[in-house]
Write a structure and sequence with these properties.
CATH architecture: Orthogonal Bundle
Distance between the termini: 47 Å
CATH topology: Multidrug-efflux Transporter Regulator, Chain: A, Domain 2
CATH class: Mainly Alpha
Strand order of the largest sheet: 1-3-2
Radius of gyration: 18 Å
Number of domains: 1
Helix content: 40-55%
Order of helices and strands: EHHEEHH
Amino acid sequence: MLTGADAARELGVTRQRITELAQAGRMGRQVAGRYWFFTREEIEAYKNERKVGRPKSELEVTMKHEAPGLTPAY
């Protein structure tokens, strides 16, 4: 079991973000009405859900959709 601080450090997010995810029911268990604990499996599952890499520009998304296999010339 990981604490909120441990989970935040593992995911590279703030403790506030971890609390938001927990309150939204995405992960974690609340104990004694105050403390949140997380399993390593929950953390790994969330890591796998997250998008990796930088956000794509609208042009890159459009080009990939309209002309798969072509690379941008810019």
